[in-house]
Amino acid sequence: MTTKRSKANSAAATAVSAVAVSGKGSISKSSVSKARVAKASASEHSKARDSKDRVAKSSLLGGRKRKSAEGPYKLLAIDLDGTFLDHEGEAHEEDILAIKKLKARGIMVTILTGRLYSGTKESAEILGIDGPVGCADGSHIVRVAGQKTLFHRGIRGRAANKLRESLERNDLVAFLFAEDAIVHDERGADYLPFVRTWSTDLRYAHRITEHALWDSKDGMTAVVALGHETSVGRTVADIQRDTTESMQVAMFPFRRDAEHWGMVARASGGTKATALEWIAKHYGVSVDETVCVGDWMNDLPMLGAAGRSFAMGQAPDEVKKAATDVLERTITTGGGIAEAIARAFGR
């Protein structure tokens, strides 16, 4: 059974990664062929099974060793797209039930996602989460109960001005992310299905580069821009040259056509790891007492920070190497979070 979500392109929310990587997770097969096993003696049968078990076990281990804390773990953090939500924006009932049962045991659960809060709220409410969740890859932390901002790291001041100048100079289509809303102008209208995954709160502005957000005290949670690869590359180069200490940026291919690319800029310092640390401290637990589950490049920081971390079965090799464990389940099969809960917290 699955739970319905938005049908928008769920890959958009994790487009913060610089390049698209394809990785298929699977359990490694024993090097002993079936023919050889068939001819083996009883002793050889036993050795073959032992070898196969060792290979299968090793394939479930990530590239990072667990930290000193071996449990009991006290907090679970999950990614949304590719981990909890599939490519159709749906969650598997097995994962929902496992999370609810874990919460009933007194374990705290949070969400760490690239989405803005409005794109996160529905999942949080379905899971019964009313505490803090980390949005925009750690740039915005919101308490679900009351929808109150607890922490925000925004692009502002000199960095905002430099970014605006570069966007105008390179004629890019831009979207301003303001905590929970996305501001766009007429040029961005055709791309709304793409950005809608981040947030469903879309607001129109006459001219995006003249919006008051550029001069706001709190700044912008993120800025996404689309255009020809060369033009996007120029803006990325401008940011890396002029504002590297105050802003981070990633460039990604845009699936609409081969010529168009995108970029996402955020204030420096915010990651899913910093959000995990903030939320763990909020609950009075250490990061070593946390467990996280993710599948993509923007999950790398939290996978490396948590006491125990699980990479989804379909995750790229780089993501699997950053985790302590690799799941058999994929987003296609569903049940990845349920598997992680069983292995880290017991059934």
Automatic annotation (TrEMBL):
Keywords noted in UniProt: Hydrolase
Gene3D superfamilies: 3.30.1240.10, HAD superfamily/HAD-like
Biased composition (Low complexity): 8-41
A cellular component term, taken from the record's GO annotations: cytosol
InterPro entries reported in the protein's UniProt record: HAD-like_sf, HAD_sf
Basic and acidic residues: bias regions: 42-56
Region (Disordered), start-end ranges: 1-63
Example GO molecular function: magnesium ion binding
Pfam families per the UniProt record, alphabetical: Hydrolase_3 (PF08282)
Protein name, entry field: Hydrolase (HAD superfamily)
Organism: Labilithrix luteola
